Amino acid sequence: MSIAISATSSVRKPWLTALVTSVLFLIVCLSWGTTWLGIKIAVETVPPLTAAGLRFLIAFPLFLGFALMRREPLLFPKESRWFFVFVTLSYFSLPYYLLNYGEMHVSSGLTALLFSCMPVFILLFSALFLREKIYPSQVLGIAIGFGSLFMIIRSQGLHLDHAELFGVLAILCAAVMHALCYVVTKKHGTAISVITYNTLPIGIAGMMLFLAGLQVEAPIFTAISARSWSALLYLGLVASVGGFIVYFLLLKRLSPIILSFVFIIFPVFAVIIGAWYEGQPLSQELMTYSAILLTGFAITKLPMEKWLRARTGPRID
User: Fold this and answer.
1) DSSP state of 80
2) What share of the chain has pLDDT > 70, as a percent?
3) pTM of the full structure
């Protein structure tokens, strides 16, 4: 009987592993897909600087507990202190303020679509700073993605007055800064654990943003609605900490290329959920252009020339 049980367990284990991995992948897509709606609700009654600071201050104690539980160092290596400052400012502080500001003027679904171009900027920065090759199929994907993004903005009726224009530019700037940070991290931060990378920077960024909000925005806390507080709690506890932990687990189960498709899938959830909450109909035009956009950006992750060369092997003359 024990042999039969052991055999059954070994047969079921791959299916169970695949199921758990699929569920974790879906959780990441859902948590990050709903982040944009959470930001939209938070900034309804909380100014953008203050909202970004409160989100990180809510998340920091859990990150700190997670780091202490795993006995991870809180400080970056001594020779990487400049990199610590760079991560704190360029990954957490400025981009999340820009995202919050942008969502005050742009819908949550469109924000997610705008931010989905971030992997394209990673590709461009990788070519510039890491000397990685860009293949013609990837150039085609970039052209398709940004062409459809332009059509989405046009089809959504954005006339790009000053508020909408600055909102779109703020979101794109946040995507560019995140992409740059990913590439610099690949070059200088591979020896730093993921937990160390996030914990102290998120705490310091939260305090800086919150104090800046108190000085610049002078928020009235009694005017913050229950919905905005709920959104901040969701962003801090679920989207930031929960999404981070699940993503951390997936890093051990999936290849980086497959996992990077999270950035292609979560905008789909964001568009659908945002349209439902904001009462905006999902037009056929929007769905078509969104599909083309995400397909274009997906192509940038799949350099066909490299794959074909790997399958056919080196050419012998």
Assistant:
1) G
2) 87
3) 0.84
